Write the C-alpha cells for this entry.
Amino acid sequence: MSDTRLTPHPSGRPEIRRPAQKRSKVRFEAILDGAERLLDKLPTAALSIHAIAAEVGISPPSIYHFFPEPQLVFSALAERYLRRFEQTVLTEVPENVESWQDLQTRQFRAAQQWFNAHPAARQVLLGGPAWSPDIGIQDHDSNYVTAQRSLELMDALFVMPEVPDLRDRLVEVIVISDAIWSLSIHRHGFITDAMEEQARRARIAYSRTFLPEYLPLRAAGTKPA
C-alpha cells in the first residue's frame, strides 16, 4: 500500500502527494531543503527536477513520486515559507509604539527584513517566475492570518473605533505593499529601502481612508472590551 495521499485538485490537475510514513516525510522535506538551497543561489529558471535530484542525491523518479509536476515543488515551498513567516513575524508586541502609523511601519519593515534574508522565499512568494495562481491563493489565505494578527495587536495597543471590515482593509494594505515590493525585486533582486519607503507611503495613505489620524494608546494593564 502506498504511504502517500493524493488529493485531487479541483481543476483536475495533479496535486502534491503528501507522505504519511516517517521515512517518506523525511525524504519529502529533504527534497524541499534541496530546492531551497538551489533557489538561494540560482534563478528559478535553473531549478528543475533533475537539478534538485542532483542536489539531494536521489533519483528524479523519487521526486516525481511526490511532485507529479515541477511547479508543485514551488507550491510546497510556498506553504513552508508562509508557515515560517506566520511563526516568526508579528509574534511579539513591539515596545514604545507611538501611533498606528509607527506600528504599521515597524511591522512591514520586519517583513521586509525577513524577505531580504530569504532569497528563495522572495522568488516564490513575491511575483517571481516561480509564482503561480495556486501560490497566489496560498498567499492571499496567509494574508488573512497576518491581517488578523495585526488587528489583534492594534486592539491590544490602541483604543480602537468601530471600523467595518477592518481585517479586509488590512489585507488590502498587505496587497498594496506586496505589489511595490514585487516591483523592487524585479528591478533590484531584493526589497530596497527606497522602495520600502514608497510602499510605506502608499500603505499609510490608504490606511488613512479607514483609520482616524490619531488612535489613543490603551492604558498599560488594560484589556480590550
